[in-house]
Amino acid sequence: MICEWLARGALCSQAYDKYKDHAEFFRYIGVPRVDAYRLCHGLELAAAVVVDELLVPYFYGKPGRISKAVAEALWELSVTVTPVATALNGILPKGTIAVVQGPCIFGLELNRYTVFLGPAELLSLIREYISSPIFAPFADFLIVADTDYEELEAAGRHYGVSAYVSCIADAPSPAYILLCEVHRELGDLLTRALGATPYRGESALQLVNARIAVKKEG
Fold first, then answer.
1. Which residues contact 140 (CB under 8 A, 6 or more apart)?
2. Helix (H) or strand (E) holding 42
3. Is the separation of the CB atoms in 33 and 18 below 8 Å?
4. Please, how many CA atoms are within 13 Å of residue 52, restricted to the half-sphere of its CB?
5. CA-based angle 32:67:182, to the nearest 5?
6. Residue 26 clears pLDDT 90, i.e. is over it
7. For the segment 128-153, what is each residue's pLDDT rounded down to a tens digit?
8. Contact, 209 vs 83, CB < 8 A?
9. How many beta carbons lie within 10 A of that of residue 94, not counting itself?
10. Is the omega angle on the peptide bond into residue 83 within 30 degrees of 0, that is, cis?
11. Can you point out the beta strands (E) in the chain?
């Protein structure tokens, strides 16, 4: 899941190279100072962008800003939730599903009529991706709707959704929320930096390499 990769990426961040200046941040996320060799390639480098450009500034009191680089890095990191999202197809109800974007940018794995909700900066990547001719046969089953996190429930009513799917961020009931098994502090911090609220309840199901919280209606 994305939290584990954020922890790995923190070791590759520019902030980590100046550990003494950001020691409070690294203590909070549970990443110690180590002198061992650090592996910094694809997903680690993507995570380092999120750490340097979003998480560190937000931790020290600056407003969260979803830059193009951060959005693209989150898109890249979201490949880590693909197995879990695919497995959800076996338990999701029939009908229209609303997928909340952020921290993960995902949902194309779901075999449902899907409405993508969330900030425009994150949805732009979904919108661009499904504009490809390969998605033309599925165009009538995919809707992208820029939505503030405070307006998720109203958007769900508008589109007649039967359930929400989210990643770390809370969502209206009924909902299926992907949760990190490790480094949850990082996932919660990232969620708040994006302007959403982390889910505070307990998980209920184990799917692939993540746990799923199920919020029942009422």
1. none
2. helix 42-50
3. no
4. 18
5. 35
6. yes
7. 998 888 887 877 889 999 999 999 99
8. yes
9. 9
10. no
11. 97-100, 114-118, 142-146, 163-167, 175-179, 205-207, 210-215
Closest CA to 167 of 211, 123, 121, 119: 211
Q: pLDDT digits over 37-73, tens only?
A: 678 999 999 999 999 999 999 999 998 889 999 999 9
Residue 30 CB neighbour total at 10 angstroms: 13
How many helices, marked H, and strands, marked E, lie in the chain? Answer: 10, 7
Q: Is 98 exposed, middle or buried (0-12, 13-18, 19+ CB in 10 A)?
A: buried
Characterise 134 by phi-psi region: left (phi > 0), alpha (psi -120 to 50), beta (else). Answer: alpha
pTM of the model: 0.92
What's the confidence (pLDDT) of residue 218?
A: 60
Nearest Cα neighbor of 122 from 175, 60, 173, 169 is: 169
Backbone phi, psi, residue 165, to 5°: -125, 135
Beta bridge partners of 117: 100, 145
What is the chain's mean pLDDT, rounded? 92
Q: How far, CA to CA in Å, does 184 sit from each of 39, 102, 140, 144?
A: 22, 15, 36, 28
45: nearest Cα among 87, 82, 9, 5: 9
